[in-house]
Design brief:
heterodimer; A: about 375 residues; Aspartate Aminotransferase, domain 2; 3-stranded antiparallel β-sheet; about 40% helix; about 15% strand; globular; B: about 375 residues; Rossmann fold; SH3 type barrels; 6-stranded antiparallel β-barrel; 5-stranded parallel β-sheet; 7 helices
Chain lengths: ~375, ~375
């Protein structure tokens, strides 16, 4: 059976050019980047080169980039590095990497979003307290693709004199990112959302921002992140970032056209289908569609058995899905949230793939609705 | 997917794993599904000292996934937590508070395993389902009905919990283990290389740790922020004499001997619980004997609903040896059962299942 992958917000395959760039780092260039000798210097050189590419993708300086193990580490670093004591402000639709970390802080306010999934900077301002230490708002949402007004929120933070963090995991590699224009103090990204492998990411730490380390130990990463550098991972991240700088804009335009084609075709062919987060600025590859009267778990399984990989809700520890906290936060009922499916496109998807997906979705939804009493 | 696809309900235990293995060996297209029914992280006050053998635990899901990987079949976990809470857990609690002794496994079979699960299976393209229940099904072309029989392994027979299944449900269901002894099933598990071949059987109600249902009910109310109406009251004799106090009617079930806290010259048992007056009536063993009962919500399986009295062996709880009785229809869904010999501890809320020579005629709920 031919398989089609429409779940690029979960993860992406490692691209050929990234694999080619990282393979030597797993072979001949095996030195420890902290070592003084030739082997160490070769690794150090590769690491510094990668750092430049990541910095270029984010419009940062190389010395502002700290390599991490991924998005969760970056978010935890930013939050615990500023607000171990005191108060944090975030939103109701953040990734668990932020919400889970906020649960461990002394106190945190989760600001609501509107029905499109957008947070109002004035609501953030109203949540400020004398002991507020940090505002943390995701740049783009994983489930809806909705993009937040980070620049305006960062202004609120600046005026209040509190730190501004953004979880950029779903934005980096999908939309242009300039940490300077955004005005953030920290910004977390992860490689596997844009064709680097899992287990490597980066945290932008603005020069001059006062953010304590999360991991203590050796003098790696300018004393900001202890632990022997993952050189192969960093090189992969650098190569993936370089591809985004060079080819990203063209690919985003292509994916946006495919996504629009997918949306239009589904809305045209399947009755009672609605785009969640419609009307908000969104990442070009993501659409989240609600099919009234069906259980998205059943749709996901039915599509997978036909060879199409999509996503519904968030996986819990057993692997079952739970109603998405993001979808209920934009005002959907639990039932509506359980009727919603996310399609996220990527580099390998073609027009033919999208058309095949539309056929499979239309057929599967029709079959499921035949069984649903309200649609019999 | 081909129309012949079978969805196997996989719990991670030996039985359902062997079902998947057998169907796979016979060349069927199968998909493995595990039902997530209860979140084990809820009610932390109940954290069990020995968290083994409990359905829906993470270990069981990992086991089921491991078996599916071993067999090379597609596998998914489906979340039925909401339906399970509404249709099994809440009625389970309600029954205890109403002074009855419920069987959640039967509710789960009626409303989850052979309803929601069949619907999910059909939704994903599987026309039939298979489970590891010990029961046998045969099509009788003469009567035009699916007939259910007790399993070959009488000790493992689970037909007592399956009395609510309807003909449309049975038409889609396979019980591949009904013809095997449990020892053979373990042997098959080893033969098929199933990683959980030596896993112990689970016994207790899956969402109630250590069988302590009263503690479960208390913890559930605490979680829901519900202050249950007072259930503490008096222990009385059949004659109405007060002999002590008790900690809540839901701690007691008919026939229970332990936990009464009353000293007497002879063993005392719970004869009845009366939620309206919050009284628990106690008495001697002989006071537990009854020859007659009403049964409601009757579902007929192997025979069409009878219009005249019929003879059958009737089982009033899972471990009860079926006793000879005459069943007289009262109305469409109710019968009166008159035993040839009085039976001990006929318990409201339990199932009454009617057999004739191993054939499951039907069953209902004891009033």
């Amino acid at each position: 059976m031919r398989r089609f992958y429409f779940d690029h917000n979960a993860t992406t395959p490692v691209s050929p050019e990234v694999l080619a760039a990282m393979l030597p780092m797993l072979g001949e260039v095996y030195g420890n980047a902290s070592s003084v000798h030739h082997f160490g210097q070769m690794a150090r050189q590769a690491l510094d080169e990668a750092r430049k590419h990541v910095a270029a993708m984010l419009d940062a300086s190389p010395e502002e980039i700290v390599f991490t193990s991924g998005g969760t580490e970056g978010d935890n670093h930013a939050l615990f590095g500023v607000a171990r004591t005191g108060h944090a402000i975030t939103t109701t639709i953040e990734h668990p990497a932020v919400l889970g970390a906020c649960d461990q802080l002394a106190s945190a306010t989760r600001v609501k979003v509107d029905s499109r999934g957008i947070v109002d900077p004035d609501d953030i301002r109203r949540a400020l307290r004398p002991d507020t230490k940090i505002i943390s708002v995701m740049h783009a949402n994983n489930e809806l693709g909705v993009i937040q007004p980070i620049e305006e929120i960062a202004k609120v933070a600046r005026q209040a004199g509190v730190a501004m963090h953004s979880d950029g995991v779903q934005a980096a590699g999908k939309i242009p990112v300039s940490v300077r224009n955004l005005g953030v103090d920290s910004y977390a990204i992860t490689g596997h959302k844009f064709y680097a492998p899992k287990g490597v990411g980066a945290l932008y730490l603005r020069k001059g921002a006062s953010i304590s380390p999360l991991l203590y130990g050796g003098h790696h990463e300018r004393d900001r992140r202890a632990g022997t550098e993952n050189v192969a991972g960093a090189v992969a991240l650098g190569r993936a970032a370089q591809w985004i700088v060079e080819e990203g804009a063209a690919e985003w335009a292509r994916e946006a056209a495919l996504r629009d084609r997918l949306e239009h075709a589904i809305l045209h062919r399947v009755r009672d289908a609605h785009v969640n987060g419609a009307g908000a600025p969104r990442t070009p590859n993501t659409t989240n569609i609600r099919f009234d009267g069906i259980d998205s778990d059943a749709l996901l399984i039915a599509l997978d058995l036909r060879g199409f990989a999509v996503s519904s809700g968030a996986a819990c520890s057993s692997g079952a899905t739970e109603p998405s906290h993001v979808l209920t936060a934009i005002g959907l009922t639990k039932q509506q949230a359980k009727s919603s499916t996310r399609f996220s496109l990527g580099r390998a998807n073609s027009i033919d793939d999208v058309d095949a997906l539309v056929d499979a979705v239309a057929a599967s939804v029709a079959h499921l609705r035949k069984l649903a009493p309200a649609y019999a | 997917m081909p129309d012949s696809t079978i969805a196997v309900a996989m719990s991670g235990g030996v039985d359902s794993s062997v079902v998947a293995g057998l169907l796979r060996r016979d060349g069927h297209e199968i998909v493995g599904l595990t039902m997530q029914l209860w979140n084990q992280r809820r009610l932390p006050a109940l954290a069990p000292s020995q968290p083994t053998g409990r359905c829906c635990s993470l270990d069981d899901v990992y086991d089921a996934r491991g078996v599916a990987q071993h067999l090379g079949i597609p596998y998914y976990v489906v979340n039925f937590e909401d339906a399970f809470e509404q249709q099994v857990v809440k009625p389970f609690i309600g029954e205890y508070l109403a002074g009855r002794t419920p069987i959640p496994c039967t509710l789960c079979n009626n409303f989850i395993k052979f309803d929601r699960f069949i619907e999910m299976a059909e939704g994903v393209g599987a026309e039939r389902i298979a489970t590891g229940h010990y029961a046998r099904l045969d099509w009788n072309p003469d009567s035009g009905r699916w007939e259910m029989r007790r399993s070959v392994d009488r000790a493992k027979d689970q037909t007592y919990f399956l009395f609510g299944l309807t003909q449309p449900q049975l038409a889609r269901t396979l019980f591949p283990l009904g013809g095997f002894e449990k020892a053979q099933v373990r042997e098959l598990a080893r033969e098929l290389g199933i990683p959980t071949a030596e896993k112990p059987d689970s016994q207790e109600i899956c969402f109630v740790p250590n069988g302590d249902y009263a503690a479960f009910i208390d913890a559930y109310f605490a979680e829901q922020g519900i202050t249950p109406s007072e259930t503490r009251g008096k222990l009385v004799t059949a004659g109405g004499r007060v002999v002590g106090e008790h900690s809540g009617v839901h701690h007691f079930t008919v026939g229970q001997r332990r936990g009464l806290g009353v000293a007497a010259g002879e063993p005392l048992y719970v004869i009845a619980t009366e939620p309206a007056t919050r009284r628990v009536v106690i008495g001697r063993n002989d006071d537990l004997l009854r020859a007659k009962m009403r049964v409601h919500g009757v579902n007929w399986i192997s025979i069409a609903p009878p219009s005249a009295p019929l003879r059958a062996e009737v089982k009033i709880r899972n471990k009860h040896a079926a006793a000879a009785a005459t069943i007289t229809p009262v109305d469409a869904a109710r019968v009166e059962v008159r035993f040839d010999q009085a039976q001990r501890a006929i318990t409201p809320g339990q199932g009454a299942v009617f057999y004739s020579a191993g054939l499951v005629l039907g069953g209902g709920w004891i009033e």
